[in-house]
Design a protein that fits this description.
The complex is a heterodimer of chains A (about 325) and B (about 300). Chain A contains 15 helices and two strands. Chain A is mainly α and about 325 residues long. The longest helix of chain A has about 35 residues. The two termini of chain A are about 35 Å apart. Chain B has two domains: about 60 residues, no CATH class; about 240 residues, MetI-like fold. Chain B is built from 17 helices and no strands. Chain B is mainly α and about 300 residues long. The longest helix of chain B is centred in the C-terminal third of the chain and has 35 residues. The chains are: A mainly alpha (about 325), B mainly alpha (about 300).
């Protein structure tokens, strides 16, 4: 085997070195990980095209291989089930809002924090804002509960003190789009701000000095130096996030609502929460799988498309 | 000297005026408070007495303090320490394995002469834009690799991410000089030796970055646990909190002497116990992250370099 490779490589390039063997050994464990946990599931995609059956006493692989092919039936069923419309609407709309606000607000804050006179204060603010990034959604859901609980939460205590009626927060769908947006910003803004700020500190200070000598105002400096310098990283974040537009932050929608009560189903179910619930219930696995396959393929197309568009506009900024 | 004063003047000119600075400070103080206050609040609830919660709801400054929630957790220390043990074990093993796997591949990909570089680059790149989806991963992990109800289910699926591999590759490529590696090779060192003896010691920042990414990912994970773990011996702290409703009863399964289960449950400070578990999870993070914060940013800025 090795010999064979040797000869082939010799013809094509230089000789296969001892170095190459050693590097291959070094890379082998990670390669095996990729095969098992990344590429094997890719073949699991075929479940979406089968009616999965359990043959008693046979192994799982046997079951998959001998299950009947049903073509796109699972997908058809998914499309006809009507829930797909809500799932897609929620997933995409929330993500679009998150992507836009997730760029505009942190960039604004990063510019502002870079202008604050005291560097010590700015460090303290950064550390405080970074905190939510390190918490899991399970923990955050208890934070939220402390505010929104019907009989004990702070918000209702305040409402009552103001002479208003308390609100059943976990039953009223109309508030939740705002709560989701707020919580998403709460958790991600600090991190993104610090990342953009790192790019701002990397800007060559002589640019600003030259601008000051030319009599540019602070706002002109921000508009003509700071913001253009942030373009590459903003575009990179944009492509990466668009690539995830069919995925949702599962914890946000599932944990913060405390497991999606029925009254909130329409505003808080996304593709991921649907799949999760289906996976732990008795929904046929083929259909669930169809939903995730659809998700993967749609994302693959979006990221390539976003990249293609960016490439059209400016080749330097594309990530692929 | 004159030059320096000039520069000072330039940077003075360059500053925003005092009132804008004041306004910005106010804005950031508000944002900082919004970020931190929920945790302070949850901590205050955890030290509020149960009767005070029943009377007044959750309060920032409770009428009546009590350490009952923590005493209760201490009483049930078998379960709490077991969960803590699972969390710590998974975090440590996962971080070490993850860092080794990630950096080893990152180093290999950073070697310009390596023959299989093109192939392995694709292996890393494809999962970035396509994956089999949650169901397929679940099926593979649960049915083919048989990870259900093992600690490996909490560790293995999260070990490597292509994003981290790319970060390490870029780091090695830009900061480890080729000449050092070439001279070590001339001295007869194997690549494994070079990696362990030369590359690792001079690449501490990237190890710290990846290590911290993984530490927090493992410590905060509840999702893997909710999919694969049903055995209560393997419950992590996050999973314990996630299923607290079920677990409060489970915690109460060994009442102290002289009390029936009903009595014990009715005496339990349920409200504050939940918040106390949240505090136990967050406190180590809150104490540790300010010291490691800079590495998180380093990681992302290295990753942003195209390469």
């Amino acid at each position: 085997m090795n010999n064979n490779k040797n000869i082939k490589v010799k013809i094509k390039k230089k000789k296969w070195h001892r170095d190459d063997t050693e590097l291959t050994i070094l890379a082998l464990p990670t390669f095996i990980w990729y095969v098992l946990f990344s590429f094997l599931p890719m073949f699991g995609v075929i479940i979406a095209f089968k009616r999965y059956q359990i043959f008693p006493g046979k192994s799982f692989l046997y079951n998959i291989i001998y299950s009947e092919w049903v073509g796109f039936d699972n997908f058809k069923y998914l499309i006809e089930s009507r829930s797909l419309y809500i799932l897609l609407r929620n997933t995409i709309l929330y993500n679009m809002v998150f992507i836009i606000l997730g760029i505009v607000i942190p960039v604004t804050l990063a510019v502002m924090i870079s202008l604050i006179h005291s560097k010590r204060k700015s460090k303290v603010y950064q550390t405080a804002m970074f905190f939510p990034h390190f918490l899991s959604w399970v923990v955050v859901s208890y934070f939220v509960f402390a505010f929104l609980s019907f009989d004990k939460g702070v918000l209702n205590t305040i409402l009552i003190a103001l002479g208003k009626d308390p609100v059943q927060w976990y039953m009223e769908a109309k508030y939740w789009p705002f709560i989701f947006v707020f919580m998403n910003l709460w958790k991600t803004t600090g991190y993104s701000t610090v990342v953009y700020l790192a790019s701002i500190t990397g800007i060559d200070p002589s640019l600003y000095e030259a601008a000051v000598v030319d009599g540019a105002s602070k706002w002109q400096q921000v508009k003509n130096i700071t913001l253009p310098s942030l373009r590459p990283i903003v575009i990179m974040m944009f492509i990466l996030n668009t690539g995830k537009i069919f995925y949702s932050d599962f914890g946000l929608f599932y944990q913060v609502t405390r497991g999606i009560p029925a009254s909130l189903y329409n505003v808080s179910s996304t593709i991921d929460t649907y799949v999760y619930n289906a996976l732990l219930s008795s929904t046929p696995i083929g259909m669930t799988s169809a939903a995730t396959v659809f998700q993967s393929i749609a994302c693959c197309i979006t990221i390539l498309l976003a990249n293609w568009i960016v490439k059209k506009i400016d080749d330097d900024y594309a990530i692929i | 000297m004159k030059n320096k004063r000039n520069q000072n003047m330039v940077s003075k000119l360059n500053q925003i005026n005092k009132s804008t600075n004041f306004l910005f400070n106010i804005i950031f103080i508000i944002i900082s408070l919004i970020s931190i206050i929920p945790f302070v609040f949850v901590f205050m609830i955890s030290i509020t007495s149960e009767s005070s919660i029943a009377r007044n709801g959750y309060q920032f400054i409770p009428n009546e303090f009590s350490n009952n929630a923590y005493l209760f957790l201490w009483n049930e220390k078998n379960i709490i320490f077991n969960a803590l043990g699972v969390s710590v074990l998974v975090t440590i093993v996962g971080t070490i394995l993850g860092v080794l796997l990630t950096t080893a591949l990152g180093y290999v990909l950073s070697r310009p002469q390596y023959k299989l570089k093109g192939f392995l680059t694709w292996v890393v790149f494809i999962p970035m834009i396509f994956n089999g989806g949650m169901v397929a991963s679940y099926v593979v992990n649960a049915n083919i690799l048989r990870l259900k109800n093992t600690l490996w289910a909490l560790i293995l699926p999260l070990l490597v991410s292509s994003f981290n591999v790319v970060i390490t590759k870029t780091f090695f490529k830009t900061t480890v000089p080729d000449s050092i590696i070439e001279s070590a090779k001339i001295d007869g060192a194997s690549q494994l030796n070079i990696f362990a003896r030369i590359v690792v010691p001079i690449s501490k920042p990237v190890f710290a970055t990846i290590g911290l990414f993984l530490t927090f990912a493992f410590w905060n994970d509840w999702f893997q646990s909710s999919l694969y773990i049903t055995n209560s011996k393997l419950t992590s702290l996050q999973a314990l909190l996630n299923n607290i409703q079920k677990n409060i009863e489970y915690l109460a399964n060994n009442p102290s002497a002289g009390l029936s289960i009903q009595q014990y449950v009715s005496q339990m400070p349920t409200e504050s116990v939940r918040m106390a578990i949240a505090v136990v999870i967050v406190l180590p993070i809150a104490c540790a992250y300010p010291f490691f914060q800079k590495y998180f940013v380093t990681g992302l800025t290295i990753g942003a370099v195209k390469g």
